[in-house]
Design a protein that fits this description.
Elements (H helix, E strand, L loop, with lengths): L13 E2 L3 H32 L5 H13 L11 H19 L25 E4 L2 E4 L8 E2 L5 H11 L5 H35 L2 E5 L3 H6 L1 H10 L1 H15 L2 E5 L25 E3 L6 E3 H19 L42 E4 L9
Parallel strand pairs: 5-6, 5-9
Antiparallel strand pairs: 1-4, 2-3, 7-8
Helix pairs in contact: 1-3, 2-3, 4-5, 5-8
The structure holds zinc ion.
Length: about 350
């Protein structure tokens, strides 16, 4: 009791700096390197010629002096924090040397040393997913997507001469990456579908035409990545295992265009529209949430129609029974919140193809 624990967390981001930001960063890296080298030279000189120990504090005073000289005035143009941190890094390097865990600190070389600058908490601002460094007017643009490893492997393969040993090696590598991605995806889908089936008595999904959607090149990657067909297959056999109900709503049911509040149907709903406002009732909808509510209501209406026909029902365009032919807005049934449901409430869930990012 009474022991408080805190955890440090590290986040790694990639940035796409503007030209001005890139120049500012390069200037900072250069100044960090300069300060580190100057301090190392000063400490080495003091010790070798005068057997005098110069520590972090003394170098910090020196830094203030350097900034005032004509030659080194440019050091004052970048954020002072990374420069101060460079002196601390040097101090740590000496500590490791004294502790016999590493060699005597070496000078940083532009081409060989890793360009870096460390900003402490006071020298950056992170808000709303935007990182702004000291001395920078605009936040850095974070690159959220990384090239898939398979793309890199594929590129490496294309560079190798056909028939060569390296080509064969690169080909094995591509195959391995493919296998690795497939494993990860399958594992993720298994966890997701098992959870969905366990937590819900009835699941409603939309019968999306994956094949047609893949023909659209903009969509193709997102959909194949989402492995929608695989998800559906898993849901089908797992609902059967667990004695749950899976209702597949006809692909022509206007799940996205239909306002779940008033039942009005929007004229058009291109896929890039993620949020829309109903012209009839003025409700603003999240595209996927609204569609999920509609699907659940439609699925339940179907389930209620043929309540005791078969335990495992599937409604698709092939069976000739379509919920799209229903008139008027679908009945609204208690919509469960995504997390945690009341004890007496029947567990219901609906699934709408989520964005691909959740599957990668
Ligand atoms: Zn409406």
């Amino acid at each position: 009791m009474g022991v408080s624990r805190s955890m440090k967390r590290a986040f790694k981001y990639r940035f796409r700096p503007t030209d001005a930001q890139a120049a500012e960063l390069l200037r900072t890296f250069g100044c960090v390197r300069k300060v580190y080298n100057l301090a190392l030279a000063a400490r080495t000189e003091a010790w070798t010629t005068r057997q005098k120990k110069v520590g972090y504090r003394e170098t910090s005073v020196m830094l203030t002096g350097w900034k005032k000289t004509d030659d080194l005035a440019y050091l004052a143009e970048v954020s002072s924090v990374p420069l101060q941190e460079a002196l601390r890094h040097l101090q740590n390097a000496f500590a490791r040397f004294w502790g016999k865990s590493s060699k005597y600190p070496r000078f940083k070389v532009k081409r060989k040393s890793r360009a870096s600058a460390q900003y402490t908490r006071s020298a950056f601002r992170y808000a709303d997913g935007r990182l702004t460094l000291a001395k920078m007017a605009a936040p850095l643009e974070i690159v959220w997507s990384r090239p898939l490893p398979v793309v890199r492997a594929q590129r490496a393969l294309s560079r190798k001469e056909k028939g060569s040993a390296n080509h064969a090696k690169a080909r094995t590598r591509v195959a391995r990456v493919h296998g690795w991605i497939a494993d990860r995806r399958r594992d993720h889908l298994h966890k997701l579908t098992t959870r969905l089936v366990r937590e819900n008595q009835t699941l409603v999904i939309e019968d999306l035409t994956v094949r047609n959607m893949v023909k659209n090149h903009k969509l193709a990657r997102a959909i194949t990545d989402a492995a929608w067909g695989e998800l559906r297959r898993m849901l089908q056999y797992k609902t059967a295992w667990y004695g749950r109900e899976l209702i597949i709503v006809d692909r022509w049911f206007p799940s996205s265009k239909l306002c779940s509040v008033c039942g009005a149907i929007a004229d058009q709903m291109p896929l890039n529209v993620r949020e829309w406002t109903c012209e009839s009732c003025g409700t603003t909808h999240d595209r996927d949430e609204n569609a999920a509510i509609n699907l659940l209501a439609a699925g339940l209406a179907v389930a209620a129609c043929g309540a005791d026909v078969r335990p495992q029902r599937e409604y698709s365009s092939h069976s000739g029974r379509s919920v799209a032919k229903q008139e008027g807005p679908p009945a609204r049934v208690g919509i469960p919140s995504p997390r945690g449901r009341g004890p007496g409430q029947k567990n219901l869930g609906s699934v709408k193809a989520p964005p691909a990012s959740r599957y990668t």
